[in-house]
Amino acid sequence: GDLEITAVSAHAYAFLADRYAVLACGASMGIGYGPVVVARAPRTLESLRGRRVAIPGPLTTAALLLRIECPECVPVEVMFDRIPAAVRAGEVEAGVIIHESQLTYRAEGLVKVLDFGELWQQRDGLPVPLGLDVVRRDLGPELMRAASEGFRASIRDAIDHEEEAIAYALRFGRGLDVPQGKRFVHMYVNDLTLDMGDVGRRALETLYARAVGAGLIPGTPALDIV
After folding, report:
1. Residue of 26, 54, 27 lying closest to 40 (CA atoms)
2. What is the DSSP secondary-structure string of the chain?
3. Which residue of the set 11, 99, 161, 186 is catalytic?
4. Rounded-to-integer distance, Cα 61 and Cα 170, Å
5. How do residues 180-214 score in pLDDT, each as one tens digit?
6. Checking CA distances to 13, which of 22, 102, 107, 221 falls within 20 to 30 Å?
7. Rounded CA separation 88/109 (Å)
8. pLDDT tens sequence across 89-140
9. How far is 119 from 124, CA to CA, in rounded Å?
10. Cα gap 75→114, rounded to integer Å
């Protein structure tokens, strides 16, 4: 709780809600896109029961989604940028990829088992909630609102000056070219990034209800959205 404002996974927030509220802006929600389960050859999610599946960290939303949908697999923590290589090498049967690998896994010789964003859109008509910006509750209502308004203004400015924003972001893009960088940004920077609104709240409520039902989080977190 030493950080006053930070970004966390939607999964991790379930363990922090007593100290932090959610900013209405800055969330990463995939509308038809999300973490992707990949393997060396075509297979089903059900075939991964009892099999080792790489995850990018135990408190990532990617790991939570996997455990909800395939509770009998064996999660194996691997650095997110090593997961494609671990799958190719046979260290694991499959892996849940995030970030740039979602655009490059086919070129790396892997195939899609399941895209969680596609699943949520088709099954639930909702975006899949992945990351959140949060603010510490003890700052008080006025400062919390000011933080939210400041973040929203910053995001809007980046959207209004996309070329400059993309050029800056690609400095951290781990090998993406400009078209790939734009595609990746457009996957997760959308209207819900400016304000998650009722749709974003429903997506989070759905995620937490499923996680509670599966016994994966201690309880339904308070969803105070500033």
Report:
1. 54
2. ---SEEEEEHHHHTTTTTTEEE-SSS-EEESS---EEEESS---SGGGTTSEEEES-TTSHHHHHHHHH-TTSEEEE--GGGHHHHHHTTSSSEEEE-TTHHHHTTTTT-EEEEEHHHHHHHHHSSPEEEEEEEEEGGG-HHHHHHHHHHHHHHHHHHHHTHHHHHHHHGGGSTT--HHHHHHHHHHH-SHHHH--HHHHHHHHHHHHHHHHHTT-SSSPPP--B-
3. 99
4. 24
5. 778 777 777 888 999 999 999 999 999 999 999 99
6. 102
7. 8
8. 999 999 999 987 888 899 999 999 999 999 999 999 999 999 999 999 999 9
9. 8
10. 16
Give pTM, 2 decimals. 0.92
Per this entry, what is the length of the chain? 226
| pLDDT score, position 177 | 79
DSSP-assigned beta bridge partners for residue 75: 53
What is the rounded distance in angstroms from the CA atom of residue 213 to the CA atom of residue 71? 12
Q: Is 99 assigned a catalytic role?
A: yes
Query: Phi/psi of residue 160, each to 5°?
Result: -70, -20
Structure tokens at 148: 């939210």
Give me the DSSP letters along 149-184. Answer: HHHHHHHHHHHHTHHHHHHHHGGGSTT--HHHHHHH
